[in-house]
Amino acid sequence: MTKPPSHRLVPTKVAALAVGVSEATIRKWVSRGKITRYGAPHRRSQFDIEELTEIALQRRP
Fold first, then answer.
1. Long-range own/partner contacts, residues 39-48 (CB < 8 A, 24 or more apart)
2. Which of 6, 10, 12, 60 has its CA at a distance of 20 to 30 angstroms from the CA of residue 20?
3. Which of 5, 3, 24 is nearest to 15 (CA)?
4. Residue 35's Cα: distance from chain center in Å?
5. Which is it for the CA torsion 27, 31, 37, 42, positive or negative?
6. Mean pLDDT within 1-14
7. Taking the model in full, what pTM does it have?
8. Across the strands, what pairs with 3?
9. pLDDT by residue (tens digit) across 16-40?
């Protein structure tokens, strides 16, 4: 998978706020393969806001 443009990448805290979950949930989703983490190992994680938007829409009742 290619890396999205940098203007679409957000840190973990913003990712959690965008979807309405905790930062711990974001990390769990990464470990389970539900979302893609971008960034070098042992560096700050970043997430594609487009991917997060899709997840947020799926979570709506």
1. 44/11, 44/12, 45/11, 45/12, 46/9, 46/10, 46/11, 47/9, 47/10, 47/11, 47/12, 47/15, 48/4, 48/8, 48/9
2. 6
3. 24
4. 6
5. positive
6. 89
7. 0.84
8. none
9. 999 999 999 999 999 999 999 998 8
